[in-house]
User: Fold these one by one.
Assistant:
Number 1:
Amino acid sequence: MVEPGDPTRGQFTFDAGRLCLDFVNTVQFRPFTDRLELINTYDDLLAWARQATIITSDEATALAAAAQKQRRSALDALAQARTLRESTYAIFSSRAAGLPAQEADLRTLNRAVGQAMAHAGLIPTGPGFEWGWPDTVPELDRVSWWVARSAAELLTSSVLTLVRECAGYDCGRLFMDATKNRSRRWCDMRTCGNRAKSRRHHERRRAAGLGRRPTG
Ligand SMILES: [Zn+2]
């Protein structure tokens, strides 16, 4: 768990290629029970959304104030966002492995998509319009709506086949494979890719009887 004041708190990466996958990646070392959770409070959720630029600073201020007044609802919104994140992970992870999605995960995502659509509307942007949430007072669940919409768009798109799960044994991060020959295996060559290479190196050395510690 990240303790308050920890320097990693509130620092998120946005390199997966899609918003919904970046949100999935707010859990690190996912295969382990002592995995690292980066969204521990409703404020963390707002910090992520601010960094993702899906809410303005005015909206973040309004939502933080609303969360102070409605603590129970903010905790529910946080729990809902994390449940949505785990189902989103499960659906894309299964897809990357060529497996079908579990019904329960699809139900969770569909519920969030339904809520997002119920609040969706058109917002004028200069000469045109775009889909968004025109509520003048933003709802506490708004971050989940963005994630649900991003996941739904990716799941129904032709680039769904490019979703990958990092091959690092302890990682579980998802990303879009933008390489020409569709051969990307690691979320990051500098971390998981390098670790895998050095593991292979040690395994080869062990198999060859090298690298043993002197016994006496
Ligand atoms: Zn990785």
Number 2:
Amino acid sequence: MAEFDAIVIGGGLVGAAIAYGLARAGIAAAIIDEGDIAFRASRGNFGLVWVQSKGLGAPHYQRWTRLSAEEWPALARELGERTGISVGLEQPGGLQLCLSGKELEKRHAMMKQMRREAGNFGFEYRMLDHTELAEILPGLGSSVAGASWTPYDGHANSLNLLHALHKGFIERGGAYLPNRTVTEASAAPHDFRLQLGGEMITAPKVVLAAGLGNAKLAPLFGLSAPVRPQRGQILVTERTHRIWSLPLGSLRQTQEGTIMLGSSEEDVGFDTAQKPEIMRNIARRAVLSFPWIAQLQIVRAWAALRVMPPDGLPIYDQSEEFPGAFTANCHSGVTLAGAHANAFAPMVAAGALDPVMAPFSAKRFDVPAQA
Ligand SMILES: Cc1cc2nc3c(=O)[nH]c(=O)nc-3n(C[C@H](O)[C@H](O)[C@H](O)COP(=O)(O)OP(=O)(O)OC[C@H]3O[C@@H](n4cnc5c(N)ncnc54)[C@H](O)[C@@H]3O)c2cc1C
């Protein structure tokens, strides 16, 4: 029987960031990971560290995202020093392009609401018109009406991030146990036992970070994680000289020079097929934004599934029935990596979530039925 201080179920970006934070805090942790399956979001994302649209009507989510963006540079530096892997973080701010006057108006209204809701916490943004944008973005299409800008946004190489978190975790003494699927567990307060084939693994703490797998696992631990898949498709062009270092919402150029075009939001269940009509629409918007993109070859394209809570906001919880069990679910695991490693993991290490996390509890979905 293998005994640990904490078990993290799931080795995607969410689980790896939390497990890294635990190992760094001196916790003897294990990651149990089913493996590299088709809808593993951590290998199919867009790589944005994106703040500007997060938390409309939910300022606690805006604050959590901002905290994460603030923690990112320290995490990136630390991972680079400890693992030798550059996660390619750039945080020059970000622009969200709007392709019509109506889109721009809607965006402006959203930015104003974000600032209002931020209150004393503040929310810096600017709206730019076509002329201002054309001065900073070469070859801008005439269809672009304008953009919103905030200083908080950035992007990173999310595959390197996943690799670095795993490497850093193992170097800190963590145990990575792949090709194991948790289907059953015995749970008691501060006593969790997982039977994995012939081996039994125990710990007084468990963190459910199994992405879409959390929906089935959560009830075993007195928790609820009603996440559903949301498909996103992405196209990638051949490499070209560096044109933009700042991400443009659904367009971003990697440090290697490829341009990523994305990404759709489709409710199609556990279907990871690519659809030509969606790909065409992604390419069409990109070419309307920058007509010269039409001359670049598309070299890769894929679809992957986001881990989507019912209201789009993350779910973080601790089990009242079985103290010591926690869950973390979100659709922005790249952006939130800083918060997961540097804020959420210390809470798990301390044994309880901070009261500021209460609005993220799945209890918000327990609305009594109308009489
Ligand atoms: C198209 C697309 C674009 C995106 N773009 C961005 C972006 O620009 N910025 C951003 O911040 N986020 C983005 N995301 C979201 C981000 O990728 C996810 O939030 C993040 O990867 C989720 O990580 P996860 O660890 O929760 O889930 P996953 O990556 O799915 O990992 C879950 C892991 O748990 C394992 N597992 C599942 N069930 C079990 C079980 N029963 N036992 C053991 N192991 C199990 C799986 O094998 C897997 O390894 C995007 C996602 C998609 C699909």
